[in-house]
Design brief:
alpha/beta; seven-stranded parallel sheet; about 35% helix; globular; DNA helicase; 3'-5' DNA helicase activity
Amino acid sequence: MTVTYLDLTPSQRAALDGLPFEGNHLVSGPPGSGKSILAVQRAVMLALTGTPVTLLTRSNLLRQSLAGVARALGPSDRPVRVATAHGWLTEWYGARPPGRGDGWYDWNALFDRAAGTDPAPAPALVVDEGQDLPPEFYLLCRMLQARTTVFADECQRLTDTNSTLAEIARNLGRCTRHDVDGNHRNTRQIAAFAAHFHTGACLPDPPGRQGPVPRLHRFPERGAADLLILLAQAHPRKRIGVIAGSRHTQFSLLGSLQRRAPRLRPQLYTSEAKGGQYRTLDLGRPGIVIVHRASAKGLDFDTVVIPDTHHDAAADPTSAALRMSYYVLATRARHELHLGYEGESEPPLLAQVSSRELQRG
């Protein structure tokens, strides 16, 4: 069997090669450790053995991102299917399962369907950002006797319906734990800034790559577009991710950019769209992509701009949920990180960060 590796370090290759094809596995690691690309490679390796395999994500935008990589690496005669967990559950159930009001399905209905169906060949599943799926999902995998590999980091949860690593391992049943180390995405300066918001027991080792110190900008009203235009013109071959806290901010920025710099051809994603330009993006081309915070998990960009931190000014700066959110958002950036606010005062959460880790102006 020939395996094509994509941008893996020797330690990442060793971690991938050390995963047995059989059994359930839980692979955990910090942001930038390469979990998403390892998830794709794991799915491709299973497909090369002749096993039908599905790579699952919670986010549709992450699904789009991983699907392109899977197509490039996977065997053409046994392609890896990439789907959202919701889509896969709907297909397996045979219709849209009854809901329960929190964005997920009635798990008892799914459990009843699993218990009442004839045994079928056990599916092979690979899950990326597995902490964002609820514990009941992994109980269902166990009932279906699915061969499941999960890549997760419980310090990166952005949803209320999520799983701890212990819950994932326990609900899968027999499950082998694995760890991947290192931060191969961020610069040392971005990692130092993100460390202020880390909520886990221990911080990952800092990366060696250097870059500019993250910068905090005070914007005039609707002034974030000025920064985005400057960044896009200065770095035309870079991918610039704008991570906004509301749809209003997303579409306001999109309108400003389209009026003032239409040649930039900015893209916007919203999970509310059922199809079309705001649902399906070309994530392979450089330029500006405007996404909501809830869709940022698993993504990375050369430059990240968080334009509306003033909306968090009233939040408790000691809140674990808020701090975890900023940890996730900051670690999406590969080289540059910019944060912005409107008003007279810095948001309290950012005012705590020294000028060594966060430049002003």
